[in-house]
Amino acid sequence: MSYNASHTPYNQSSEVRVSMMDSATPPAIAQGVDKNGLLLGRWRRGICSSSFEHPVPNTLMSFFCPGVSFAQISARLGLLSYSYVMLYFILLYALCITAAVTKNHVVIAICVFLSLVLLYSHMRLRWRIRQLFSIPGSILEDFIYATFLGCFSISQMAMHVESYVPGDCTFSARATLPGYRSLN
Questions:
Q1: Which of 24, 49, 57, 162 is most deeply packed, by most CB within 10 A?
Q2: Digit-coded pLDDT (tens) for 6-46
Q3: C-beta of residue 143 within 8 angstroms of C-beta of residue 120
Q4: Alpha-carbon distance 61 to 24, whole Å?
Q5: Overall pTM > 0.85
Q6: Quick one: DSSP state of residue 56?
Q7: Where are the domains of the chain?
C-alpha cells in the first residue's frame, strides 16, 4: 500500500485576511468609539489627568460648581433633566447653609440624608457611564472615586461624555447625544 500525495510547501508570502467584523457591526464600534465618537472600553483620561487637560471649564466647574457639571453630564446622556439636577443641588446647598446657621438637628439629619442620596447618585452615574461605554471597573471603585475623589470623578465623566466645550465656561447643558433619551 503506497501513499502518494503531492506536497505543496508553505509559502510565507501568501496572506490570509479574515474580517472579525460582521456586516451588522458599524465600523465606528469596531474602531473603539460609539456612533457619537465617544471612546468605548476605557476612560478617555485617568481619574486625575482629566482635570488638567481643559482647566477652563472642566476643572473650574468640577471643583467650584460640581452641581453644574453633574447636571451637564446627566443631561448629555439623557439620564436626568438638567433643571431637576440643578434644583436638587440648589436645595441641598440651601439646606446645608440653613443647617449650619440654625444648628437644628432635624435639618442637619435631612442634610446628611440628602448628601448620602447625592453620593449614591454620583456612584450610580459613574456606574451607568461605565455600562454605556463598556468601561471596566467595579461598584467599589465607583464608591471610592465618588466619596474621596468626587471632583476628579466628575471631571473625568464630563471629559468622557464631552459635556462641555473646551475653553467655554457656560452654565447651560449641551444637547443630549443622539441615541440617548432626552429628558429635558
A1: 57
A2: 554 544 444 444 334 444 444 444 458 988 899 999 999 99
A3: no
A4: 40
A5: no
A6: I
A7: 46-161
Contacts made by residues 96-100, CB under 8 angstroms, sequence distance 24+: none
Take residue 65 and report the three cell numbers written for it: 460648581
**Cβ–Cβ contacts within 10 Å for residue 40, how many?**
14
Grid cell digits, residue 63: 471643583
Alpha-carbon span 142 to 154, nearest angstrom: 11
Q: How many residues does the chain have?
A: 184
3-state secondary structure of 33: strand
Phi, psi angles (nearest 5°) of residue 165:
-100, 120
Cell digits for 90? 440648589
Instruction: Say what angle helices 66-76 and 105-132 make with each other, to 10 degrees.
Output: 40
- pLDDT tens digits for range 145-160: 999 999 999 999 999 9
Q: Cell triple for residue 139?
A: 461598584
Q: Residues 53, 57, 58, CA angle at the centre, nearest 5°?
A: 50
- Closest Cα partner for 57 from 181, 138, 164? 164
Q: How far apart are CA 157 and CA 141, in angstroms?
A: 14
